[in-house]
Amino acid sequence: MEGKLELTHTDYPGLRVIHVAASRIDSAAAIQFKDQMRALTDDLTYRAVLDLSAVSFIDSSGLGAIVASLKQMPSGIRLDLASLQEDVARVLRLTRMDKVFIIHDALDLAVAPNGH
Amino acid sequence: MATRQSARFTCEATALAVRHTLQEMTGRLADWAIPSDPRVELAVAEAMNNIVEHAYADNPSGRIQLDVSLIPQGLSVALSDRGLAMPDGAVPIGEMPAPETLPEGGWGWSLIHACCDGLHYERTKGANELTMVFQQVEI
Q1: Are B107 and A28 within 8 A, CB to CB?
Q2: Are A25 and B45 in contact (CB under 8 A)?
Q3: How far apart are CA B14 and CA B31, in angstroms?
């Protein structure tokens, strides 16, 4: 289907990295994003990191879908963000939602034990 | 050349059509060889999403017209639709929702205000006309 968004994942000990295989998380992708995130995090017992390295554009619907994904995480389980492109980072800064997430500059840092 | 550069796009009031139109618009701006300004796509996306979600809330067959033109001050983007008028007849001021409430939306107008340098709204003859101006686009 046109406008399809795909999430893939890589599991590490104590960590699931979720890769967004699409260049946009926009209004046309928001519902698919949220649904796929739910399927990938539903029964997670450890931290997840969302790898946004392929994403060059998000709008407020896309940001809302990322926040919804955070809120639907199992209780006590973190969702971090990693590898934001500049235009995506700007939307998080402008909306001050960069305060809500732990944001890793690069994926290898996120994958490090404890994610620090 | 005295010809001023401008382009018109029309778009159905669906999220996917908005995405395609934004990509066409950014492609055209790139063709014009003006410095890329990421604020433009974000502001226009938010404004078009508002039209789809609010002005044409009950009418996905509505049409949106997008006019992009280079003006002496920079870039002008005008959106026109025949959907519901803006409540209060004016653009909302837009206030960023508090991050700690984990909002899932409500940033649209604030982002538009933050991204463009001029904003004008008019309701005329059953149409909404929203014009955004972006400065610092060097020709």
Answers
A1: no
A2: no
A3: 26
Rounded alpha-carbon distances, angstroms, from residue A90 to A56, A76, B9, B14: 11, 28, 27, 25
Out of A6-10, A39-43, B18-22, B91-95, which region has the weakest mean confidence (pLDDT)?
Answer: B91-95
The Cβ of residue A80 has, within 10 Å, a number of other Cβ atoms equal to: 18
Interface probe for A, chosen from B42, B54, B115 (most Cβ of A below 10 Å), is B42
> Which tokens go with B1?
């050349």
The radius of gyration computed from the CA coordinates of chain B, to the nearest angstrom, equals: 15
Q: Write out chain A residues lying below 8 Å of B37, CB-based.
A: none
The reported pTM is 0.93
- pLDDT tens track for B70-128: 998 899 999 999 999 999 899 998 899 999 999 999 999 999 999 999 999 999 999 99
* Residue type present at position A27: S
Strand B127-134's sheet: what is its strand order? B6-12, B63-71, B74-81, B127-134, B118-124
Name the CATH superfamily housing domain A7-106: STAS domain (3.30.750.24)
Q: What ipTM did this prediction achieve?
A: 0.92
